[in-house]
Amino acid sequence: MTSILVVCTGNVCRSPIAEGFLRAALTRRMGADAPAVASAGTAGWDGSGAMAESVQAARERGVEIGSHVARRLEASHLAGADVIVTMAAEHRDAIAAWAPETADRVFTLKELVRLVESMAPVTPGTDITTRVAAAAERRRSGFGGNPLDDDVVDPLGMPLDSYRAIAWELDEWTERLADALVGPVPLRAQREGA
Predict the structure, then answer these.
(1) Which of 4, 5, 99, 104 could covalently link to 136 via disulfide, CB atoms 3.0 to 4.6 Å apart?
(2) CA torsion sign, 142 to 148 to 154 to 160?
(3) CATH top-level class for 3-184?
(4) Each residue of 107-126: pLDDT tens digit?
């Protein structure tokens, strides 16, 4: 089964929200066949819960992350991930330097979205790893995207409204990623969710 790892700095603000939203988006599209989604932090606050503001902001958008437990990024997390989605270019670059074998599997969220959206629409039966490999090839061939807008701002220490803005941004980008990787939510699931 495909595994997706979401990475930020402390694993208490951005990545728990993104993990929750991406898991929900993929589950709406794939049901029980959805890939496993987990998260970690390059300087993870091992054992901490998600920030209360992150929990609230995610909950307000329909995703529960209250049971999240932060963890520090380890080599085994990278080895077990088919796709590594980071919240900022600094995380992507640090991971690629630490574990060069991940270079074709690690992207910022926005970078990966732009890459897969620039490709032909996903066809039924195409797996996520195939799309990611094509995105890596597209990146190698010089697809520019928008490197000035690769990062999701870290809301740590900011007021709740900043967390709400980040949650909105992450909700939008993870939905776009799910659409581009596996296709839109099936009509039946849209009706059931309405």
Answers:
(1) 104
(2) negative
(3) alpha beta
(4) 999 999 999 999 999 887 78
pLDDT above 60 for 193: no
Instruction: Please tell me the pTM assigned to this model.
Output: 0.94
E-strand ranges in 76-142 read 83-86, 106-108
Asked if 152 and 172 count as a contact pair (C-beta separation under 8 A), the reply is no
Structure tokens at 174: 């993870």
What phi and psi values does residue 69 have, to the nearest 5 degrees?
-125, 120
d(C-alpha 2, C-alpha 123), whole Å:
17
Contacts with 176 (C-beta within 8 Å, 6 or more apart), sequence order: 113, 117
Q: Which amino acid appears at position 186 of this protein?
A: P
3-state helix, strand, coil in the chain (%, to 5): 55, 10, 35
Question: How many Å apart are CA 63 and CA 122, to the nearest integer?
Answer: 26
Sign of CA dihedral 151, 39, 29, 191: negative
Give 61: exposed, middle or buried? Use CB within 10 Å, 0-12, 13-18, 19+: middle
Place of tokens 């799309």: 131
pLDDT digits (tens, 9 = 90+) for 121-155: 988 778 999 999 999 999 999 886 677 789 999 99
* Helix (H) and strand (E) counts in the chain: 8, 4
